Amino acid sequence: MRTKGSWGSVIYDRKRGSYRARYQHPHVPGRTVQRVFADKLTAQGWLAQEQRLVEADKAGLDTWTHPSERDAARKAEQEKRHLVFRDYAVEFVEQWRRKDGRPFEEATKRKNNEYLRHLLQAPFAGKTLTSITEADIHMWLATPMEPTPRLRAFQLLKRIMLKAQQTGLIGRSPVTMSAPKLPKSKQAQIPVATREQLESSIKRCHRTVVSPCILACASTCASTKCARFRYVTLTFPVASCTCVTL
Question: How far apart are the first and last CA of the chain?
Answer without folding.
Answer: 99
